[in-house]
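Schema walk-through. Below, the input block comes first and the output block second. Nothing else is stored per chain. Lengths vary across the set, and this one has 260 residues.
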Amino acid sequence: MNPRVLVIDDDPDQLLMYKVAFSGEGFDVQTTDSGEDGLKLALENKPDAILLDIHMEDKSGLDVLRELKQSDKTKSIPVLIFTNFSKGQFEATAKDLGAEMFIIKTEKLPGEIVKDVENIIGRAPKSIPQPKKRSENVLLVEDNPYHREMYTTKFYLAGFSLITAVNGEKALEQVRKNKIDVILLDLALPGMNGIDVLKALKADDKTKSVPVITFTVTPKEDLPDEAREYIEKNTVEYFEKMTQLPSEAVELVNKVLNKK
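--- output ---
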């Protein structure tokens, strides 16, 4: 039986990110954006661990923690507080209420938090079935470490070994070093932006034919006219990270590769 983790956070992107991270390591994952619903799920399903944000719309995470630890039915469940608030503000209170750990979200990647949970529940990292290996090389150009981890996990589960680059300059280095079959290119990059990377790719005879998928949080209609027209002419697909799931990115890459 797989270990179970409950993630309580009112940010849908956080819920998705941690669901992918834990599922990729063989956990059964439940998520909710409500403190009240989190209490009900904990009582009904008795998860092996709970990840609990402090700031939520309907009920403070600290109030949820207090109620979990006051109930005989849930008080033994380890609770990891994970938040963007500083430790000085809430850590002592959370520990006094019975939190197992206090984690600042920006200080740890999801994979590291998975390992924290495994250590707390006494579970050795699980050897999950290996997906069938794909031969194609996919390059993800993304400066956000959480998005890199989330999409790396999703593509790994689909059999891809995702190559990543944190900025435009590194992306061009990777394209020169490796045979890249498709590129997921973020537009908002530090230094050299995505449009400049795209122009550099199209100006080089060795890379101009590599299909590029625009990979961004910006809806296409919100782009300046000139940028939108250039992207429509020089990329094969447009992927919006805020409205589409990681699984859809994998499907899009497969669609592009099947056309080659």
